[in-house]
Amino acid sequence: MYLARSLVKSSSKTSLTTLLTGILTFGVSVPGHAGYDDHPRTAEFIAEVEADYQIPASEVKKWLAEANKMQSVLDAIARPAEGTMNWARYQDIFLTTKRIDEGKVFLQTHAKTLAEAEEKYGVPPEIITAIIGVETFYGTRQGSYRVLDSLSTLAFDYPKRPIFWRELKALFELANEEGIDPGTVKGSYAGAMGYGQFIPTSYLAYAVDGDGDGHRDLWGNPVDAILSVANYFKVHGWQSGKPVTQRVTVSGSAYEPLANKTRKPELTVADLEAAGVKLSQPVPASNPATLVYLEGKEGDEYWLGEYNFFVITQYNHSRLYAMAVYQLSQALAKE
Asked: pLDDT, tens digit, for every residue of 198-257?
C-alpha cells in the first residue's frame, strides 16, 4: 500500500508507504552485499522477531543470510518521485485512457466479487478498482524487487526510517503465517506487495481470505485482494454512501492558511464557507472538511476534502494520490 504510504511526499506533507515510486520503479539491481546475518544489529533484530512472533532464531538468521543489499533501493528511497510532482503531471500518469479502459475490464471481470465487497464493507466497486488501478495497473505491475532484499536493505542500512525494521519483522511473521518462503516474495522497492501494494504490517492487519481457501494471497488471488482493500477502507472509517470531494471556488484571503493545512478534517464546512470557500454542491454546514489545493493543468484548483477523501489518504498520505483515485473512480463509474 503502499505503496508504502508514509514514504511518499505530497505537495505539502510527508506521508508513509508509498507507493508512487513503488509503482513507477520495477527494476532490480545487482546485489552489493550478500547476507545480513552478520550485521552489527543482527542479534538485536533476531531477538525481537523471536520475542514478538516466536519465530526461532535459527530460521530468522537463515532468512537474513539470504538477503542482499540493494543499492537501487537506497537510491530510490532517497528520491521519491512524487515529491517533485504537481497535480497536472500526476494526472498524465494515472488518468489515462488506457488505465480507464483497463479499469472497466477489471470491473466487469470481477463484478461479482466487487459487489460482495461492497455489500460486506460498504466500499463502492469503482473505489476499490481505482485503488488497484493506481497501485499496480490492476495487478499487472506488482514490482519485481525481492521484498526480502528491499526490506533488509532499508531495515539495516537506512536508519532514517526505523519503520522498515518493523516491516522486515512483519515480513517474517507473514511468511510464517502463510507458509511461504520470504525469499520468493516480490514487490516494490519499499516492500509493498500484491494487487493493492500492502506493506507487511498492513498485510497482517487487513488482508482477508476472501475465497475461504485458507490463505490470504494478495499476489495471485484477485478475490482476496479486492476484499482486503475493502476491509482496509472499512477499518479506516469509510462512510458508505457519503461523498468524497467536490470542486470549490475561493475568494478573499482568509482561506489561504487553511489550504492543505491538515489531512484529517479538523474544520467544518461552515468554517470554510466563512473563510471564503464557495461550494458547487450543498453540504451540511456541520460536516467535517478540509480545503485541498492542487496545481492543475489550467492553474490553481481548490477542492472540498470530505471525510472519505481523508480515508483515501489513509491508504496513501498524498493528496495527489487521493485525487487520482477519486477521479479514476468517477471515470469508471460512468460505465
From this structure: 999 999 999 999 999 999 999 999 999 999 999 999 999 999 999 999 999 999 999 999
Counting Cβ atoms within 10 Å, is residue 82 exposed (0-12), middle (13-18) or buried (19+)? buried
Task: Report phi then psi at 54, rounded to 5.
Answer: 60, 35
* Active-site entry in 118, 126, 135, 173: 135
DSSP reduced 3-state for 156 = helix
DSSP 193: B
135 is catalytic: yes
- Average pLDDT of 108-128? 98
Average pLDDT for residues 100-114, to the nearest whole number?
98
Domains and CATH numbers, the chain: 5-244+306-333 (1.10.8.350)
On the CB side of 273, how many CA atoms lie within 13 Å of its CA? 14
Nine-digit cell string for 68: 542482499
Q: What is the pLDDT of residues 286-322, one digit of tens each?
A: 999 999 999 999 999 999 999 999 999 999 999 999 9
| Residue 138: all three cell numbers together | 490492476
* C-alpha span between 223 and 231 (Å, rounded): 12
Residue 318, classed as helix, strand or coil, is coil
pLDDT band, residue 23 (cuts 50/70/90): very low
